[in-house]
Amino acid sequence: MDNTAQIDYWNGAAGQKWVKEADGLDAMLLPFAHAVLDAAQPGPGERVIDIGCGAGALTLLVAENGAEPIGVDVSSPLIDLARRRAAATGSNATFQVGDASAWTPPEKLDLAISRFGVMFFADPVQAFSGMRAGMKPGGRLAFACWRPLLENEWALAPMVAAMALLKAPPAPPPPGSPGPFSFGDADHVKRVLTESGWSNARLAAWDGKIEMPGLNEDETAEFMLDIGPLSRAIAEQELDRSAVKSAIAKRVRELSDEKGRTRLKAAVWIVEASA
């Protein structure tokens, strides 16, 4: 299994963009952090790994519950931010730069969790097999992953707004390739977990709206340019960023409510399994 491409991506410009947008992103994704915690039910003293922890928002919430979490992520910029957040709040959460698919915990774990951090492995079966090997008997797994792109308006809307400016429609990723929507198919998720040795895999659908960051349409458009599938298309096709931003800002105005909030549909799986 070679995760080099993902490691390079998250330690380059993408990682820096996510650091820049971390506060807004964590606020937008807070409902899913709570959904994972509700499923996982971390207890005091339990040893927990947060897979693909990013800037540590979920890890820090787990620490507040009295558990002993460690967040693992390939992105050094995001781990640096997570450590600063932990130090600022006096949290007992710890963080480590590493590939969770190959990381070995110093002691067996009670719980593995993730908020959108498990969809990027080159070989997900091998990755989840490695994670299971680090669990105590009866250990638990709970994570959030996106359902298909077409069900997620928050990601689709900026793509549609910018479509006329694209030199070519973004090519869909090859089936099974890593990416934010690679776990959209429920059968695929269950198959990965079963083949990697997890048992009692179950998926619950989360449907609702999430509020996009930004105090106005320009700030929201800027966020959409930095985060989501459109950012790659802009770089790969060398598009005029300002023109794309204007098109997105126009669409944001159309979608905003009377209070100026942009709340868009999101579709997610909350997944649980046992070691």
Question: Explain this structure to me?
Answer:
- This protein is an alpha/beta fold.
- It has a single domain (4-150, 174-211, 265-274), classed as Vaccinia Virus protein VP39 (Rossmann fold).
- Helices cover 43% and strands 21% of the residues.
- A seven-stranded mixed sheet has the order 3-2-1-4-5-7-6.
- Helix 7 links the parallel strand 4 (109-115) and strand 5 (135-146).
- Helix 2 (13-20) runs parallel beside helix 6 and helix 8 packs across helix 12.
- It is globular and about 55 Å long.
Largest sheet: 7 strands, mixed
Structural shape: globular
Write out the CATH superfamily name. Vaccinia Virus protein VP39
Number of helices: 12
Summarize the SSE layout with pairings.
Layout (H helix, E strand, L loop, with lengths): L3 H7 L2 H8 L1 H7 L1 H11 L6 E5 L5 H8 L3 E6 L2 H14 L4 E4 L11 E7 L8 H10 L1 E12 L6 H10 L23 H10 L3 E13 L5 H10 L2 H9 L3 H15 L7 E12 L1
Parallel strand pairs: 1-2, 1-4, 2-3, 4-5
Antiparallel strand pairs: 5-7, 6-7
Helix pairs in contact: 2-6, 4-5, 8-12, 10-12
Short recap of the structure:
It is built from 12 helices and 7 strands. It is an alpha/beta fold and 275 residues long.
